[in-house]
Amino acid sequence: MTLDAETTVRVTLETTAGVAILTLNSPASRNALSLAMIDALSGRLDALAGRHDVRVVVLQAEGLAFCAGHDLKELTAHRNDPDRGRAFFDRTMRACSALMQQIVALPQPVVAAVDEMATAAGCQLVASCDLAVAGPRARFCTPGVNIGLFCSTPA
Fold it and tell me: For the whole model, what pTM was predicted?
């Protein structure tokens, strides 16, 4: 898949005085957990795991949402695959599960700084962190429960 500059998924990293700040920076998609976003965040966490100068990791987001959960547009785009998207779905869920476990296993504490909406798997991303700090605009929503669904990504 080719991504242009407007749709490039980024997770920025700033480190100051022992604090690493990871920023989900895909506001156009409400920081949805696309496979590219999962891979980018996982890569940043890998880089931080061995750094003894980093004492804490803060996870925050740019835009109107902390994280909209799984990227449903990306998942449904694969419905035309020969297997109706099952392989891509499985790959995405496995990658997301590994990401959640990676956050839990990180040697540094991870703090979710939420001042926007966290929805579905975005709530799970927050819950995987050691601590969550919710700002005045923070909202948490698991809409799938209204139709009998809930996040299926084990942490």
Answer: 0.88
Its domain, for residue 110, covers 11-147
CA dist 100 and 126 (Å) reads 9
5 within a domain of the structure (yes/no): no
Q: What total number of domains does the chain contain?
A: 1
Per-residue pLDDT band for 133 (boundaries 50, 70, 90) equals very high
SS3 string of the chain?
A: CCCCCCCCCCEEEEEECCEEEEEECCHHHCCCECHHHHHHHHHHHHHHHCCCCCCEEEEEECCCEEECCECHHHHHHHHHCCCCCHHHHHHHHHHHHHHHHHHHHCCCCEEEEECCEEECHHHHHHHHCCEEEECCCCEEECHHHHHCCCCCCCC
